[in-house]
Amino acid sequence: MSSTHRAFVIGAGLAGLSAATALAARGAQVTVFEAAGQAGGRCRSYFDPAFGGMIDNGNHLVLSGNRAVHAYLARIGAQGALSGPSSALIPFTDIKTGERWVLHPNEGPLPWWVGVKSRHVPGTSARDYMAYAALLWAGKRKTIADVVPAKGALWDRLMCPFLLAALNTEPKQASAALAGAVLRETLAKGGQACRPRIAAPTLAAAFIDPALEFLRAKGGEIRFGERLRAIVFDNRSATALEFPDATIPLGHKDTVVLAVPPWTAKELVPGLNPPGEFRAIVNGHFQYPAPAGAPQILGVIGGTAEWIFSFPDRISVTISAADSLVERDREELAQTLWADIGAALGIKDPLPTWQIVKEKRATFAATPAEDAKRPPTQTKWRNFVLAGDWTQTGLPATIEGAIRSGDQAAALALRHSSL
After folding, report:
1. When you count CB atoms within 10 A of the terminal residue's CB, does the N or C end of the chain come out lower?
2. 47-63+277-364 and 6-46+203-276+367-417 share a CATH fold
3. DSSP characters for 220-262?
4. Contact call for residues 198 and 206 (beta carbons, < 8 A)
5. Are the CB atoms for 36 and 44 separated by under 8 Å?
6. Cα dist. 263→332, 364, 368 in Å?
7. Is the pLDDT of residue 382 over 50?
8. Mind giving me the DSSP string for 144-191?
9. What's the Cα-to-Cα distance from 358 to each of 190, 303, 327, 330, rounded to whole Å?
10. For the chain, how long is the longest CA-to-CA vector?
11. What's the pLDDT at 200?
12. What is the pLDDT of residue 2?
C-alpha cells in the first residue's frame, strides 16, 4: 500500500485501536485522536490513589471462541496476555444454599456433556438445554422470553447469569437474536470455544499498551487530549476535521474512522440516530490477595455480586445491568459485595481497602428496539466509516464486538484507499 494513504481514527478505545492497528499493519499512515488523556475507553487500567494500586475500570471476560479478540492480540504481539484454564471449566457457587458446581462442556460441538451430572448445572436435564437451541434461529424482533422458558434451574443457575453478562441487559427483555449470536459462537461450538480468559495482569497490559507500541513502531501517531469539534461533509465525502486549534483538510485517498461513543457520534454525524438507551455496570475492587486455590473466575448465584475475579493482589466483582445500584451509597455497596466475596471464597476478614467503579452508560441496552437502531459500519460518505460496539456487528456490546467493528471499519477504509 502507498504511504500516501492517511487514515484518521477518532477515538482510542478498543474499536479505534483495532481499526488503527489493522490499518497500520497494511501500511497506512495512521493518526489517532483521543479526547481523554489515555487510551482504552471502557477497557482501561489506572493507578487509583484511594485504592493504593492499579485497577481495571471493569472486568472483561473473554472466551477462547472470541476469534477477533485473539486475532487482535496476535496482531499487536500480545498473544500471551490472557490467562485461564486449559479446558472449559467455569465454577459456580450459590451463596444462599452453599451449593457449588463446575460447568464443564466437552471440547467438541456434539454436546454430550449436557447429559453428564458432573458436568452440567445441578437439577437440570439434557432436555432443558435443548430448549435453548431455539435462540440460535430467533428473529430480530423477539425477546429471549418470547423464545425460551425463562425460568427453572437452568435459567436461574446458568442461562440468566451468562446472558446477563454477555448482553448487559435484563435477559427476559433482551434481544433473542443477539443471545443466539453469542450462543452460536460459544456454547454451541463446545468447550473449545468456551475456555474463560481474563487479562493478566491488567486490561491495559493486555489490550492497550501493546497496541500503542505497535502503532508507534509502524510510524503512527497518537494524540491525546484532542477532542474533535466537527466533521465537514459534502455530498460524497468527509472533507475536513475541525479541532479547537486546527482544521485538517482531507485528501482524495484519506479516510476517517469515527470510533467514539454513540452519543458523541450523534453530535458529529448528520442524520445519525444510534441507540440511545443504556445500561450500567458496577465493579468493586478489593485490595486483598485471592486465597490459595481460589478460581480466577467464579460465577455467583443468590447474591449482589455476579462474577468474582481473583488476582494475586486483589479481588474484583462485576455486576451487569446495574442501573438499580448506581445511586447506592458506595461504602454500603462495598460492604455488600465484600460479604458476597466472603461467602463465596471463605474469607472472614473485615472489609479491606476498596474502590467502586460505576459506568452509568456502559453499553447500549441490548433490546430488540435498540438493536434495530445500530447503524452499519459503512456510511453514505465514501471515505468515512463508523466503529464501535454500538454499530451493527451482529453481537452485543462486548470486547469481541468492539474489535470486530474496528476490523470491519479498517477493511472499508483500505478498500476506499485502493480506488
Report:
1. C
2. no
3. -EEEET----EEEE-SS-EEEEEETTEEEE--TT-EEEE-S-H
4. no
5. no
6. 31, 10, 19
7. yes
8. HHHHS---SHHIIIIIHHHHHHHHSS-GGGSBHHHHHHHHHHTGGG-G
9. 34, 18, 9, 10
10. 65
11. 83
12. 46
Q: How confident is the model at residue 229 (pLDDT cuts 50, 70, 90)?
A: very high
Q: For residue 201, say if its preceding peptide bond is cis, omega within 30 degrees of 0.
A: yes
- Homologous superfamily, domain 47-63+277-364: Protoporphyrinogen oxidase, mitochondrial; domain 2 (3.90.660.20)
Phi, psi of 132 (to 5 degrees): -80, -5
The conformational region for residue 407 under phi > 0 = left, psi -120 to 50 = alpha, else beta, is alpha
Q: Is 330 exposed, middle or buried (0-12, 13-18, 19+ CB in 10 A)?
A: middle
The helix/strand/coil state of 412 is helix
* Bridge partners of residue 100, in order along the sequence: 93
Handedness of CA 79, 85, 90, 95 (dihedral sign): negative
What pLDDT shows up at residue 73? Answer: 98
**H-state helical runs in 14-152:** 14-25, 67-75, 126-130, 144-147
Tracing cell 435459567 back to the chain, one arrives at 155
What residue spans define the domains of the chain? Answer: 6-46+203-276+367-417, 47-63+277-364, 104-194
Asked whether residue 263 carries a pLDDT value surpassing 70, the answer given is: yes
Q: Which are the contacts of 4, defined by CB distance < 8 A and separation ≥ 6?
A: 29, 253
Three-point CA angle 332, 333, 335, nearest 5°: 65
Which CATH homologous superfamily contains domain 6-46+203-276+367-417?
FAD/NAD(P)-binding domain (3.50.50.60)
* Residues 131 and 155 sit within 8 Å (Cβ to Cβ): no
Q: How many CB atoms lie within 10 A of CB 403?
A: 31
Which residue has cell 481523554?
36
pLDDT digits (tens, 9 = 90+) for 35-67: 999 999 999 999 999 999 999 998 988 999 999
The pLDDT, as a whole number, for residue 416 is 87
Predicted TM-score (pTM) of the model is: 0.96
Quick one: angle between helices 160-167 and 176-185, nearest 10? 100
Distance CA 278, CA 386 (A): 19
pLDDT at 1: 43
